[in-house]
Amino acid sequence: MALQENLKQQGDFLFKFRSHLPLLLLITGICVKVYQVYFVGDNNRTTLVEIMESAAIFVGLSGFLIRVFTVGYSQPNTSGRNTKDGQIADSLNTTGVYSLIRNPLYLGNYLMWLAIAMLTGSISFVLIFSLVFWIYYERIVYAEESFLRNKFGHIFLDWAANTPIFIPTHFNYTKPNASFGWKKVLRKEKNGLFALFLLFYLFKAVGEYVEKGSILIQETWVIVGAITTGLIYCILKYMKKYTNILKEN
Predict the structure, then answer these.
(1) Rounded distance, CA 183 to CA 197, Å?
(2) Angle (CA) 35 41 45, round 5°
(3) Do 46 and 127 touch, CB atoms closer than 8 A?
(4) What's the predicted TM-score (pTM) here?
């Protein structure tokens, strides 16, 4: 099989199961966290590691906001979480964040999971995670762009020629024509913020238990954030299932 077809085949496969990557990261990250606390300890912590752990929440929230802004201005049947039906794109998103980079949702994903990787306190793990994320999503992006190129032709090629894949190289922002879809954001991104704070609580709890044999988290904002976002998630889940409030007109 030629490399081009092989990459696309790998990308299509990884696209269907891309939601499983966080589970692998979570399990590996917890193991690294336990190792760091138990074997490395606070005595060998560097200033860089402390800064990294302190900045993790801001990195994670930045990723979440990128996802919110992207989804809020995306067209119907694009920028979705579909994993069973393969590639879906009724139209090509080229405005908003998509006028700066071609894969803003994956950038958001990276920052949110980078924040979790930063909580391990291991710079090596952060670098390894970043490399694995790039290799993994590079194939997914290849498969997606093959699909978009076949469907939209020169429209996609013209957009891709002037828009970087992942890291912005210009700030020629194109304002979206549609208004911001708050209902769409609340439906699709309701679990993102809760998951972020829940994982922060989990890593803090694991660290406390390994170090002291008990769970007494000093950072109150972690507990308050997990409880608050959890309540918001439950409310939105109920509204989506039993009411029409979040349905778009």
Answers:
(1) 22
(2) 110
(3) no
(4) 0.88
* Nearest in space to 193 (alpha carbons), one of 246, 231, 240: 231
How many whole angstroms separate alpha carbon 73 and alpha carbon 194?
22
d(CA 39, CA 124): 15
Nearest to 91 by CA among 108, 82, 79: 79
Please list the pLDDT of the chain residue by residue as tens digits (249 residues): 555 666 667 666 666 766 677 788 899 999 999 999 888 876 667 888 889 999 999 999 999 999 999 999 987 766 554 444 555 666 788 899 999 999 999 999 999 999 999 999 999 999 999 999 998 888 888 888 888 888 899 999 999 999 999 999 988 899 988 889 999 999 989 899 999 999 999 999 998 888 888 887 778 899 999 999 999 999 999 999 999 988 876
Indicate if the alpha-carbon torsion angle 201, 207, 210, 213 is positive or negative.
negative
Helix or strand (DSSP H, E) at 219: none
Q: What is the dihedral of CA 171, 175, 176, 177, to 10 degrees?
A: -160
